[in-house]
Amino acid sequence: MRTKGDHQSGVRNLWRLRRYLRPYRLQFTGLILAALAGTAVGIAVPLVIRRVVDGPIAHHDPGGLFALGALALLLGVAEATLTFIRRWSQSSQALGMEATIRQEIYAHLQRLPVAFHDRWQSGQLLARVTADLSVIRRFLSFGLLFLIVNLATYAVVVGLLIQLHWPLGLLVAASSVPLVVVSRRFTRTYLRTSRRMQDEQGDLATQVEETARGLRTVKSFGRQSFMSDQFGSGADRLRDTAVDKGRQLAGTSAQFDLVPNLTLAAVLVAGAMEVAAGRLTIGELVAFVTLQLMLIWPIESLGWIIGNAQEAMTASDRIYEVLDAPPSIVDRPGATKAGPVKGEVCFDNVWFSYPGSDVPVLRGISLTVRPGETLAVVGTTGCGKTTLVSLVPRLYDVTSGRITLDGRDIRDLRMCSLREVVGVAFEEPTLFSMSVRENLALGRTDATDDEIHEALALAQADFVEDLPWGLDTRVGEQGLSLSGGQRQRLALARAILSRPRVLVLDDPLSALDVHTEALVEKALAGVLSDTTALLVVHRPSTIALADRVALLAGGVIVATGTHSELLATVPAYRAVLSEAAAIADAA
Ligand SMILES: Nc1ncnc2c1ncn2[C@@H]1O[C@H](COP(=O)(O)OP(=O)(O)OP(=O)(O)O)[C@@H](O)[C@H]1O
């Protein structure tokens, strides 16, 4: 059930959007003034008609008709001009605001920690920066304007009607009571339906996005019809909600249509009786009815405007759910640049649980990686290796304890500085729909072509030279036009290119064949000789790169030493390696 709180939060969040309107306040004020002036001119026309009927027509005075006719013509031209000005400038500020909010959400999404993106479906985010923003734009460019203009028109016209003939005027004013009752009932259900529809749109966008990304898996398992059925039921749900929403609007609009028409009929009957009794002139009745007709559109459009406002409220709720999410991993006050770094990385009694979970994934890790040393992290699957190395570039922050770089807590370093020092390459590399060069430049924007070629050579990624446009070849979305091994090598080149003092490599060679892996390892050995490196290792062959190995089990470091020491003295290490070797052989 929709609660009063939902409505209040919708109103509050919609009101918070006013700051985006501020840069356009002059245009917006001009727009409202043009709209109000256009309406005022429209209202003046029936008053001229009254003069025409009660003056020149009643007194058979064609001379008087000419002046009033010219005035009516002038009013017509003025109204048309003002309507043109309003329509011409109506959308520009709303579009400007939409673009500003969209950019702010995008920038905020980038500031938000990885943990936020772990929890949120990408389709829900996509729907917020597209569909929800469009709803808000529609409200700001049309709904809000017409709400102001229609309410002003209603107040002025009812005031004039009361002035023309107060009993009939009060009758028209009284018709607002059922309108208020209808709108209250409408808003009670529409807000909830509108929110449901926006959420379902987000769910559907997520499904499309996930299917597009996982199409190979879907096809290879022959599960197209299963996925289509799932999508179909989501689409049906959305359709049902949209139909429900449309029907609520239709029912309410019909009631909004009925009220002014019934009032008009009552006014015509009562007005004719008043004219017959001599308490109202024909001209006054014609002016009264013509003015009253001017209320029909503002009242009829009320359903649409209220609906639009409700949608804008739920859309702004959804947008502020993202904008209000705190970027929890940010520079601490007083954080400084890393400066020249030797590269000693120390885990000091580090505990870590994923946000929203009480179960610690890492439990009291204490470990020092000396400058220039390469440490391999080995352990069974799910023991926390990726989590451990993700803490070094602060993709997540430790729950307790600390990680230091040359003795300084990494949280005391500026994020940008830390990420210049720490280079990363993950097992599942992310490439963007950009050229190879642009993808590599994410590692270092000012890299020269020579440096890029050197990094490519080190990562054994010379295949780039054979791509149709070399470095300028655009790789498809997520790098899907490349093989898994090619993507991994590009990601490795990107990490090397930034010449980091600390390199974090999470099983970056897993998709390479044995021959290429050996070549990359040979080249990497040179890079690693003077770089501190944390290497998550699954394949025993990669351990050759490491000076020392840490064995992780259940989130605890159970042994550290050289490969041969552990092999000789730690049975659990032998077990992990033989299991890994068996998996590698099977692959
Ligand atoms: N984003 C996340 N949110 C919540 N829990 C997570 C998240 N990522 C990993 N975990 C959990 O943390 C534990 C450690 O995961 P992690 O990926 O660090 O293991 P791993 O040793 O690298 O595994 P693998 O060898 O299979 O890559 C697992 O139990 C996993 O379910």
TrEMBL record:
Q: Which GO terms describe its cellular component?
A: plasma membrane
The answer to whether the entry has keyword Transport is: yes
Q: What are the subcellular locations of this protein?
A: Cell membrane
Keyword field:
ATP-binding, Cell membrane, Membrane, Nucleotide-binding, Transmembrane, Transmembrane helix, Transport
Give the transmembrane region(s).
26-49, 64-85, 139-162, 168-187
This protein's membrane topology, according to the annotation, is: Multi-pass membrane protein
Q: Which InterPro entries match?
A: AAA+_ATPase, ABC1_TM_dom, ABC1_TM_sf, ABC_transporter-like_ATP-bd, ABC_transporter-like_CS, P-loop_NTPase, Type_1_exporter
Does the keyword Transmembrane helix feature in the UniProt annotation?
yes
Q: What is its main location?
A: membrane
Where would I find the ABC transmembrane type-1 domain in this sequence? 30-311
Q: Which residues form the ABC transporter domain?
A: 345-579
User: Can you tell which superkingdom this protein's organism belongs to?
Assistant: Bacteria
- Cite a single GO MF annotation: ATP hydrolysis activity
Q: Could you identify this protein by its name?
A: ATP-binding cassette, subfamily B
What's the source species for this entry?
Answer: Asanoa ishikariensis
